[in-house]
């Protein structure tokens, strides 16, 4: 596989080798899953900002429930959907701590939508990374709030009928419509196949790296930051890894367009 | 008041009592008849008198409130929330997680009539939900039952002691009557207790970090954790049973009641004694652990009849039966729907029984 | 010494406050007191009922089943008269209650509380507002007289009770209410107690 750099190298320095913010444990994530990439990006940013000893990770329920097995900081596990509320509780009594979570789309946009919306609306200085793979991954491929119309899941065997279940919910747009958040961004994270060639673009991970770093900087400046990562779940989508990358970067990216939706503090300008 | 006494509602006393015990944070969701608790704390928030009270926040739901409690308690802070029946049901999610992660905090349930919305009158119908661990999975809460405004003021302090000693949620189970009742009370002048929290998730120190998690996918691992919790509950059971007795040691018949019902039963005992019925009162102060040892001791002393008076169709009576192990005659007097039995009714029932 | 009181009336008549004044006064005298506000279905349909128990000893039950004193502010609340202890005292607002009690085993004090309060116009808000709202304070005075509290020397205590409840903007009403207390006290002292069936039954 040939990876083509998607952004100038000077913009972001990838730390190589072992990071003290990673436990070094091999992850349980499936081959090709973006959770692995995100774990590295998060660890990298925490290291870069020197935050490891004052960071608390809040595990959400879903594939990220074991995030503390890989990210070597203090951690608290939240009930399903409640991570933003647990984070608010921590931050409200310990504003000196950096608090972040990696949530899935089922956790954040379905069972935990209230907690997400209210934490955002209160402008809690916390950071949420949403891995949107349009399906309930850990429970075995059920319809998620973000599942696109027509997609076959174990609870929509004929494909999602939006006349029955409503249209996919766009959390990024919802949050961007609130006054509370300081930083709302959507990144299409997968390494993308380029046409029919053997070339791949790493634009997603590089953009992701920058966004994770900026999201933490926003929290350090007292703002609520949210980055949605359009991702894949090849296992539950019943696709090959390559097909899933294509589906995410071509089809899902249209439904959930990447972009900087809100940047009150102007962190992207540097 | 000139003599150092205050005159306030049970709910207000609970709030001020928590502040005097060094409350750091309160996460609120309003529900009648407990709303004076958050209202009082909202008034006192940022008062120079309580510098340790760093956070008061009204949440968007009971679920959000209890999850905030989990977050704040994870850092080792002294945290409390209060609710009533329907809200207490919603709190059960968080309380199950907190039991698993061994988080210390206080939840007050100002019991109203139920099930469902019920009404705003007093009941003791959340007894089983509170004492058994009302959420999923096997766990126990420590449950304290105040019976006066004075105890509403004092139990947050006791509650924090027990919560931090055992790293376990503590429930203060009051009722709508106690919440609204006003009495003269004295706040003890004691400095808030400080508790070491080496387990708290408040930043890693070098290689040492703190993970508070409830998921143990490995069966052996979950089994070890469940056994650890079971041993802790046994330890609580043997060390923390608390009860009060009144004229019980020479009694032929003993009333068993907690909360406001114990107050009217105390009056009934006096009236019964005037009528030459040797009656006494046994009041559980901890409902979980249930004070079985003290109750059993009464049978050993020769008490043969027990009348359990409660505001539900018979919940605590199950614990009384378990404690007495088939010894003694056990009768039930109950009232529901927000009504209280009259002391005179209790007197009549006991007189009939003792003939 | 123990006294059990029920205050009853309709919402807006200051029934809860009246019970609070009594409880607080008793505490100021060094006693214990318990106050229970109206709760449950009784608080609908124009009836509010409060309990006050005051005692030199720790109070057992805060629930009043047989009051020593029943204070009734409106006609509907005369329904509570059967609860009154035999030999107990009924104080009722004769401005709003036409029909006296049928019981003959109780002491009766008829006090035109609303009219007495309304007569204190000069202490009302500037421009001459309605002062009948202070009827509950008139009843507080009536209670003190019935309880045998010597008012002389208690004026400060009464004022302190009122100051506890009338705070901030409401402090302007302390003068009106303390005069209302004196008026109620004087009325009871000046009018003999009825111990037999009231006049209308004898007529």
Structure notes:
The complex is a heterotrimer of chains A (270), B (355) and C (203). Chain A is of the alpha/beta class and 270 residues long. Chain A is built from ten helices and twelve strands. In chain A, β2, α2 (67-70) and β3 form a beta-alpha-beta unit. Chain B is globular, with a radius of gyration of 21 Å. In chain B, the strands form three sheets. In chain B, strands 2, 3, 4, 5, 6, 7, 8 and 14 form an eight-stranded mixed sheet that branches. Chain B has a five-stranded mixed sheet with strand order 11-13-12-15-16, sandwiched between helices. In chain B, α2 links the parallel β2 (25-28) and β3. Chain B contains twelve helices and 16 strands. The longest helix of chain B has 21 residues, at 219-239. Chain C has six helices and six strands. Chain C has helices at residues 15-28, 113-118, 135-146, 155-165, 174-190, 199-202; strands at 2-9, 32-36, 48-55, 69-72, 89-93, 107-111. In chain C, α1 crosses α4 (155-165) and α4 (155-165) crosses α5. The N and C termini of chain C lie far apart (38 Å). The chains are: A alpha/beta (270), B alpha/beta (355), C alpha/beta (203). At the A-B interface, β2, β3, α3 and α5 of A face α3, α4 and β10 of B. β3 of chain A pairs parallel with β10 of chain B.
Topology of this structure?
The complex is a heterotrimer of chains A (270), B (355) and C (203).
Chain A (H helix, E strand, L loop, with lengths): L1 E3 L29 H16 L5 E5 L7 H4 L3 E4 L5 H11 L4 E7 H7 L1 H9 L5 E6 L2 E2 L5 E2 L18 H4 L5 H6 L6 E6 L3 E2 L5 E3 L1 H18 L4 E6 L3 H4 L3 H15 L3 E5 L7
Chain B lengths: L5 E4 H11 L4 E4 L7 H9 L10 E4 L3 H13 L4 E5 L1 H17 L4 E8 L5 E4 L4 H6 L9 E3 L4 H18 L3 E6 H5 L1 E4 L25 E2 L6 H21 L3 E4 L6 E4 L3 H15 L4 E6 L1 E3 L3 H9 L4 E6 L5 H9 L4 E6 L8 H11 L2
Parallel strand pairs in B: 2-3, 2-4, 4-5, 5-8, 7-8, 12-13, 12-15, 15-16
Antiparallel strand pairs in B: 1-9, 5-6, 7-14, 11-13
Helix pairs in contact in B: 1-2, 1-6, 3-4, 9-12, 10-11
Chain C lengths: L1 E8 L5 H14 L3 E5 L11 E8 L13 E4 L16 E5 L13 E5 L1 H6 L16 H12 L8 H11 L8 H17 L8 H4 L1
Parallel strand pairs in C: 1-4, 4-5, 5-6
Antiparallel strand pairs in C: 1-3, 2-3
Helix pairs in contact in C: 1-3, 1-4, 3-5, 4-5
Gist?
The complex is a heterotrimer of chains A (270), B (355) and C (203). Chain B contains twelve helices and 16 strands. With 355 residues, chain B is an alpha/beta fold.
